[in-house]
Amino acid sequence: MSLEIPSDWLPDSWQRKPATQQPNYPDAEALQRAISELGQLPPLVTSWEVNALKSQLARAQAGEFFVLQGGDCAESFADCQPQLIVSRLKVLLQMSLVLVHGLRKRVLRIGRFAGQYAKPRSADLETKDGISLPSYRGDLVNAPAFTPEARIPDPQRLLEGHMRSALTINFVRGLIDGGFADLHHPEYWDLDWVQHSPLAADYQRMVDALGDSLRFMEKLAGAPISDFQRVDFYTSHEALLLWYEQAQTRRVPRAPGWYNLSTHFPWIGMRTAEIGGAHVEYCRGIQNPMGVKVSPSMSVDWVLDLCRVLNPENEPGRLTLIHRMGADKIGDHLPRLIEAVAKAGHRVLWLCDPMHGNTISTPNGLKTRPFEKILSEVEQSFAIHAACGAQLGGVHLELTGEDVTECTGGARNLSNADLERAYRSTVDPRLNYEQALELALKIVRFAG
């Protein structure tokens, strides 16, 4: 398809639109120096990787792939460590192994990391003990410590974020290219702290069944099947801090248009999805496939306008709608959106984010997410899409490979009291390994 490139768009066009969720940098000259330097650094991804992902997302729209998008709610610079990166990759690989086995289709893996360093906030200021300071907006902007010095937006953090994103994505590439994701060796993916998980036996049976099938196919072929020795893996982050996104938006040789080369798959959050706003303006001009979070508060007209503005050529694989409704609201709001998008003829991929609509606070002020609500929203999503003659193409999850206690419920039935043991997130609660693997097992049943 020959796509029309917007003639009225440049990477800085967003600056002429209302921009929300942007930090107030006190030193404008320092910001411009950092942006200029960032614009000269090598890109983190390539245009052909971006195009390959768009092609695979188009196939997911056609039902050939199931998309598993997952990772941290917000990465921190301090967590750019080999073991933590390996743990995140392991949990996504193990989940995808369960999904491949149970769904009988290929899984498209998109990591919610290598750039997820900025987070939207509900208020510009945070107040404690009568003292108000700028809100923590992620390590790309400022630091979480509640001190005036830590909360000042620092443009040098843009460069730090680029460096740590590069370290993360290059380490992941090295692991995958070196055979870490080889289906011949799923034992590489084991996580020590879950050896006694209630789910371990179910998972091991799947591994054994896949191993038997793989050996049978290779016996018939008379040679190893190289396609099972590595997997495609892509990165994603919320395109929130527009100075950062603009600085890494570039033209490439022998390809029309502009590419955001800081990530393969940027998405627009619910708080920044206004038609006519800066984030939609920025995203409409890049060639990347992209996602948009869709909430119960969005009208049919709003969602249809997003489809029209962000994918005017109705290009397959270009636009993913990520609904985050909440288990108690999804039945009332999702059907009308699915039906309206289908009636208008917009070609989109639908993902379910069962995390953000199910966030609650405990009596002692910790944010958590009940696992049963997360399960319920995923189960309802499959049923609603099927009833509307559509299909759920994947899930968007906040998870970690660490032994955290941030979401209640799951195989070990974590309670509010258990959250105190290992609550480590600075922003939103994440599924731990056991809960993530249990969700993958349940998705197989829901899809059936």
UniProtKB/TrEMBL annotation:
Region (Disordered): 1-23
Highest taxon in the source lineage: Bacteria
GO biological process, one term: aromatic amino acid family biosynthetic process
Molecular-function GO terms, alphabetical: 3-deoxy-7-phosphoheptulonate synthase activity
UniProt: Mn(2+) binding residues: C73, H356, E398, D428
Keyword vocabulary terms for this entry: Cadmium, Cobalt, Manganese, Transferase
Protein name, per record: Phospho-2-dehydro-3-deoxyheptonate aldolase
Lineage, opening ranks: Bacteria, Pseudomonadati, Pseudomonadota, Gammaproteobacteria, Nevskiales
